[in-house]
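Translate structure to sequence.
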């Protein structure tokens, strides 16, 4: 695994790592060198290494309760596989090359253990199997996500680890994989130094189809519960809980999932500094909802795809739910913005005009592009953004979108939902969804 500062450098290093050279097993000189190195190699003190690993586990537990709690619940063992030169995980246990672990400094060892545990927490092994991903490309995408998170948290990683490119810093694993897959011809088939994700045993996968068994899910959820509010990893990587939710949460109707997401942004504090207009209209002076540090109530924005693929009945159903959310979530201002090839009709609603939300009827136009929506979200920040679309458009502008406060209601396109961090399928026939974060 060769260190790089962007994708092109990583690809070049990957080529170098995978290219036949003097180190190839087929080269006689390489074999002689390997034999000489084997002869000169000092034996590993097994007891000392186990003690070192025990100290590293404690260090990780003290540093991040979630990662540490999950690590101590997993089996960590020496690998007998001669092809393993570093560490790896199959989603349930962690294996290590004893020479590699022995020569790492304590900070690096803690970082590598955190790296493997993060793969387990993100269910990377099972998600790869479930999506039938190409192993090497998926491993690179997964390492980008893990390493960028651990670097952000200040962990020390060994020299030579993959560095997530700047334009992929906010992307989930699936989208990174998709972008890399388009450049598959630049990635060699065999990268042993970069492979640390191994396939789980068939009896560890429900039905052999990709879903993790209950044991590992219980361990991850237990670690989340024990460390709630004390884990930097959980706050830095929302993909952890999402990876569990999308695999094990029962299907819910899109309205429930949207309401669950909106609840995280719901104002639940009151202030007498600004009176409730509803109370004044009734002759009473009542407190109004507010946010700490900002006494003014929030604005939410809703973007509707009017490219023509979503029919009027579905539009009306969506608007009815938005009208309900306006009242239930304590919204004071709502902007409805339609889009197709660029932004089109825009309307703003407040407490007095909220009943007109369901009357919004923008003109349908052909074609869809999302870049204008991404720009509008960036230029006009709101605490909550909801996008109603079929998801059939060029997705490249989404790499510039911070989706922490963005929820997608997607008409029929389950493939698009699978790669979005916060999304639900609008299925008027089944009224069922594939996932939520």
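Result:
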């Amino acid at each position: 695994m060769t260190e790089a500062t962007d994708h092109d450098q990583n690809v070049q290093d990957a080529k170098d790592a995978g290219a036949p050279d003097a180190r190839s097993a087929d080269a006689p000189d390489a074999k002689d060198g390997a034999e000489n190195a084997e002869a000169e190699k000092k034996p590993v003190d097994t007891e000392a290494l186990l003690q070192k690993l025990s100290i590293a586990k404690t260090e990780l537990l003290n540093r991040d309760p979630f990662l540490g709690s999950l690590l101590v619940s997993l089996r960590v063992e020496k690998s007998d596989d001669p092809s393993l030169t570093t560490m790896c995980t199959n989603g349930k246990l962690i294996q290590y090359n004893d020479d590699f672990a022995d020569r790492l400094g304590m900070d690096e060892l803690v970082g590598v253990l955190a790296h493997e545990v993060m793969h387990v927490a993100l269910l990377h092994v099972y998600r790869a199997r479930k999506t039938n991903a190409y192993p090497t490309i998926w491993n690179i995408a997964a390492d980008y996500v893990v390493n960028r998170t651990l670097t952000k948290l200040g962990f020390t990683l060994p020299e030579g680890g993959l560095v997530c490119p700047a334009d992929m810093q906010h992307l989930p694993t699936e989208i990174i994989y998709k972008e890399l897959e388009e450049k598959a011809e630049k990635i060699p088939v065999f990268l042993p130094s970069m492979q640390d994700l191994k396939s789980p045993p068939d009896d560890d996968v429900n039905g052999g189809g990709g879903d993790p068994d209950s044991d590992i899910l219980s361990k991850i959820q237990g670690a989340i519960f024990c460390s709630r509010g004390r884990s930097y990893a959980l706050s830095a990587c929302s993909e952890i809980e999402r990876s569990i939710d999308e695999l094990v949460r029962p299907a819910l109707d899109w309205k429930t999932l949207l309401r669950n997401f909106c609840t995280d942004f719901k104002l639940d504090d009151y202030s007498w500094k600004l009176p409730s207009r509803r109370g004044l209209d009734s002759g009473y002076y009542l407190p109004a909802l507010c946010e700490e540090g900002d006494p003014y109530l929030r604005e939410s924005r809703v973007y509707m795809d009017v490219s023509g693929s979503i029919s009027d009945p579905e539009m009306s159903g969506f608007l009815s739910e938005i009208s309900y959310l306006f009242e239930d979530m304590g919204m004071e201002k709502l902007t409805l913005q339609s889009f197709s090839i660029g932004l089109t009709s825009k309307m703003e609603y407040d407490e007095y005009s909220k009943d007109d939300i369901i009357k919004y009827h923008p003109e349908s136009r052909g074609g869809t592009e999302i870049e204008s929506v991404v720009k509008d979200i960036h230029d006009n920040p709101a605490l909550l953004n909801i996008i109603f679309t079929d998801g059939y458009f060029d997705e490249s502008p989404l790499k510039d979108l911070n989706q922490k406060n963005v929820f997608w209601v997607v008409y029929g396109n389950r493939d698009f939902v699978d790669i979005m961090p916060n999304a639900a399928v609008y299925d008027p026939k089944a009224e069922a969804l594939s996932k939520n974060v």
